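Step 1: inspect the first sequence and its tokens.
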Amino acid sequence: MPEKRLESRLEIRLQPEKLQMLKDEAARKNTSVGGIVREAIESYCAVSAEEKLEAVRKLAELKAPAANWDDMKREIEAEYKSD
């Protein structure tokens, strides 16, 4: 999946020792400080295990017709071929 173009800017102020920690980690990972910050933001904004589990519970509650996997696969393939 191609990476989206980065368009928005964020400015933050840090204590010098925190910035040095980020620079050291970026060097260790062979990336930029911005890359480290983006990685941290992605991690912070990631869907939690609880949210994933709740989504699975909701899917399990659906009364959708579902056959065993072999039957379901045949149905999917038949529908795909009919398009």
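Step 2: inspect the second sequence and its tokens, then contrast the two.
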Amino acid sequence: MNMISEVVEQALKTGYLSIQAEDKLRLLLRSKYDKKDFSAFMSLQRAAMAGLVQQESRSIMAALSQNNKISSKTSTKSKNNSLFA
């Protein structure tokens, strides 16, 4: 079995794609790969778009974005409260 197919198979089986696996896929996709690997990668893309595979990198980005929104609201409230003090 080819390396891309192995990474994809693991992600589809677990429903999770780690940052390390994403990095490995990026590296493997830079080199020559066959139709089987391309097909496997496209299956992974479809599964991720359908929400069947969660990407660790997207989860982290969403958490950071949410954290930044909370920080901004807290900072704004603090500034607003200091005006009335």
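Step 3: confirm your contrast with the notes below.
The longest strand covers residues 16-17. The chain has one domain: 3-83.
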